[in-house]
Amino acid sequence: MDDGYLRCSGCGLCTEAFSLGCVTILKDVLNYKYNIKATFYSRNSNDNKKIFTGYRLFIGVAACETFIPLIKPLVLPFMFYKFPKKYQS
């Protein structure tokens, strides 16, 4: 539940442990089943920009309005601090 982040431009899932094929499937399922438009990008190590670490899934701010209520029932309450203020209670 802690492998995600929130920015003013949207939210992301740290999916570096998954293959490109799996990340693509997740992106496609979010789009097809929930109409959540997601993208992914390649990620490199923070200390060595040449070391590829995997792919991260990114969900834009508009799609987060659908995504967050969808996952909130599955998130333990002590992790709500990760959500925008309006979803924290």
Describe this protein with a few key phrases.
89 residues; alpha+beta; four-stranded antiparallel sheet; 29% helix
Structure report:
- There is one protein chain.
- The protein has 89 residues and is an alpha+beta fold.
- It has one domain (4-87): Homing endonucleases (Endonuclease I-creI), CATH 3.10.28.10.
- 29% of the residues lie in helices and 27% in strands.
- It has 2 helices and 4 strands, in the order ββαββα.
- The chain has helices at residues 20-34, 61-71, and strands at residues 4-7, 10-13, 38-44, 52-60.
- It has a 4-stranded antiparallel sheet with strand order 1-2-4-3.
- Strand 3 and strand 4 form a beta hairpin.
- The protein is globular and about 40 Å long.
- The protein starts with a strand and ends in an 18-residue tail after the last helix.
> Major sheet: order of its strands?
1-2-4-3
Report the CATH superfamily: Homing endonucleases
Number of domains: 1
Reading off the top of the CATH hierarchy, the class is best stated as Alpha Beta
Structural class: alpha+beta
Strand percentage lies at 25-35%
Helix content: 25-40%
What does the overall shape look like? globular
Specify the CATH architecture.
Roll
What is the chains' assembly state? Answer: single chain
Determine the CATH topology.
Answer: Endonuclease I-creI
Task: Work out the radius of gyration.
Answer: 14 Å
Q: Count every beta strand, where a strand is a DSSP E run of 2 or more residues.
A: 4
Distance between the termini: 17 Å
Let me know the largest β-sheet. Answer: 4 strands, antiparallel
Number of contiguous helices: 2
Order of helices and strands: EEHEEH
As residue ranges, the low-confidence spans are none
The averaged pLDDT comes out at 88
